[in-house]
Amino acid sequence: MAAAPSSFRPEEARSPPALELPTPPLSKFKVALCQLSVTADKARNISHARAAIEAAAAKGAKLVLLPEIWNGPYSNDSFPEYAEDIEAGGDAAPSFSMMSEVARSLQITLVGGSIAERSNNNLYNTCCIFGSDGKLKGKHRKIHLFDIDIPGKITFKESKTLTAGQNPTVVDTDVGRIGIGICYDIRFQELAMLYAARGAHLLCYPGAFNMTTGPLHWELLQRARAADNQVLVGPFGEVIATTEHEETTIIAEIDYSLIEQRRQFLPLQYQRRGDLYQLVDVQRLGSQ
Ligand SMILES: NC(=O)CCC(=O)C(=O)O
Q1: Is 114 domain-assigned?
Q2: Domain count, the chain
Q3: What value of ipTM does the predicted structure carry?
Q4: Is residue 183 annotated as part of the catalytic site, yes or no?
Q5: Which atom of ligand 1 is nearest to the CA of 68?
Q6: Which protein residues touch ligand 1 with a CB less than 6 Å away?
Q7: Nearest Cα to Cα of residue 259 among 270, 249, 267
């Protein structure tokens, strides 16, 4: 959020936003969310993830999602060991190569959870998004690193080993426009607002929540982001499908016609008081 610039005209702010929801290539499809058990054995994690993706596609999923840091343990000691050089590809990036290959062979869109990425002596927590041709459509480096200190409960500092990403990520895919965040990114509502303003149909946040704040907040945060921005969980903040902590894949139907319908029922975008507050898209400002 930022104060309005001095050239700001309230009557413009109160008119509908210039960016309407683009027409998605598919209006209804199945999404699969794979929740995976992760071990210290990277090769096993990769084949295990592949099997889950294949099983989801066999059930008709056109979009498959993996969780945060699925190819090894989620710890500062492990990030350097399991990190991959995505740009080099091949043997330097076996998790990345598997995802690209499986997306192509199954002709699905794959939001590849996240893996630690090594680039120019930095490590990032990175989500790769693959199109149904197996090509990398986009890469999101976690913007908000998870640094937390709740005495006696949890202390963790992702920033000890990882570098924060610098860019919001929106990708156009066969299943619509997707805004990407990774786990802790979901707590920062401006990012979700920005994605909605950029016409995202769907927001995907691969996660690995901790067990202190997680049970309290993970559903709350997803519902809040969806209800604020009228995007899916459901666009009214309704949970379409959920599960507990065990390994499983949940499959649900996404119906984008609900977004337009819910936005007509409850026309927040025309009621927003841009004359009093405004979200400034710094990347767009910079490119003007
Ligand atoms: N991996 C993460 O970013 C964890 C975020 C989390 O647990 C939270 O409470 O937020």
Answers
A1: yes
A2: 1
A3: 0.99
A4: yes
A5: 1
A6: 68, 146, 183-184, 187, 208-210, 213-214, 217
A7: 267
